DNA sequence: CACGTTAGGTACCGATCGGTAACATCGTCA
DNA sequence: TGACGATGTTACCGATCGGTACCTAACGTG
């Protein structure tokens, strides 16, 4: 983030825009937010946005990668909490997801929302979101392999269905809805494919 | 649908608009489609739309109920194919879902998409979508009960997570993606909570 | 001091958005 | 024939969309 030399100084316009976009894009969806609202919320002006980013789509792409950093930070936390124990790592993530999905203004995963927001499969914003989703699947396949699943890809796919289901169901049903049980379901699915611990 | 007296006559403007909205809203999302595009695609004019529907939101609400009729029609099919056998009914629906999600232009469930399209929980279109989703859950709870699940609501919630996961994952991953396994996962979940048949 | 970088301010562009007013046209039925 | 309801035609409204041109103010560095 362009590493300000003095930490007490006002952040750059680009950083303020990124922060503003992160808030607004996540809460309201990318297409629903206008650039005018972004710059107003950031306390800067429109030319500053277009000096730092090529276009709204460019800013949206940056937003998605920024957002996904938060996901990997979460994964880093469960890894640190349960080193060398992929089983516990996965379950810790799913239990945390069940908790988060009960927040009254839960908005799920920004990548998933972006994919539904852009039906055109060739749109650059959508392609970036899909690329980042594939990375998540790769990570899950790896963990499923370490957990001794008979078919790691099959287990990973089942976990993805539960994750994505929780992302959207957390928005569709008032808490505590079906998303509150995503941890339970993940346990059942893992046990069925790896056997009891 | 206002039942035209002569089946060979040109359908009413309202019906043409409903059909056009069904196509466009489903393929591109409600907010992404303009009323101008709807009426052009229907071969009618804008005043005809506003004579038959209060507003775009009103048309969108009608679209959602129309769309959900297709869902219940599907359910009626699997019920007819497996009468008195809720287990087989559920699995037939999930296997069909796995197949449909592999279509190259799959766009998931219009209700789910509408909920993500309208982050404001008080928006009438979103409330209608949420209401229809609750009906689906009620139906699943009933089936889970008939299947002898130890906790019918828990099984229904798990199946909802898988369903909704398949709806969105079918769009996020090129086929055959994780959504292709939603039938397998449903089998595991049901077996774990009802025992083998 | 002179300079280039980074920023803000203002005003604007063409396009599209949802929605409406006023009037013309058609087919149907009494 | 005459009246009526449904539809088409045209033009328009104010608001918002993403994006840009032009100029000015503050700043650190040589």
Automatic annotation (TrEMBL), chains A, B:
PROSITE patterns cross-referenced by the UniProt entry: HTH_TETR_2
Claim: tRNA-binding is one of the keywords in the record: no
Molecular-function annotations in GO: DNA binding
Residues of the signal peptide: none
DNA-binding region: 34-53
InterPro entries: Homeodomain-like_sf (IPR009057), HTH_TetR (IPR001647), Tet_transcr_reg_TetR-rel_C_sf (IPR036271)
Entry protein name: TetR/AcrR family transcriptional regulator
Organism expressing this protein natively: Gluconacetobacter dulcium
Lineage, uppermost ranks: Bacteria, Pseudomonadati, Pseudomonadota, Alphaproteobacteria, Acetobacterales
């Amino acid at each position: 983030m362009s590493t300000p030399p003095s930490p007490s100084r006002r952040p750059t316009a680009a950083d303020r825009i990124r922060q503003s976009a992160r808030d607004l894009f996540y809460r309201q969806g990318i297409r629903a937010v206008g650039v005018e609202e972004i710059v107003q919320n950031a306390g800067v002006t429109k030319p500053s946005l277009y000096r730092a980013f090529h276009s709204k789509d460019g800013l949206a792409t940056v937003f998605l990668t920024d957002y996904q950093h938060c996901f990997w930070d979460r994964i880093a936390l469960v890894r640190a909490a349960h080193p060398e124990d992929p089983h516990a790592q996965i379950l810790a993530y799913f239990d945390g997801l069940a908790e988060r999905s009960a927040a009254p203004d839960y908005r799920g995963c920004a990548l998933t929302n972006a994919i539904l927001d852009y039906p055109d499969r060739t749109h650059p914003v959508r392609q970036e979101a899909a690329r980042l989703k594939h990375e998540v699947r790769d990570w899950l396949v790896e963990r499923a392999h370490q957990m001794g699943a008979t078919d790691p890809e099959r287990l990973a796919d089942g976990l993805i269905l539960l994750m994505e289901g929780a992302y959207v169901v957390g928005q569709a049903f008032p808490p505590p809805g079906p998303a509150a049980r995503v941890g339970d379901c993940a346990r059942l699915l893992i046990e069925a494919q790896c056997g009891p611990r």
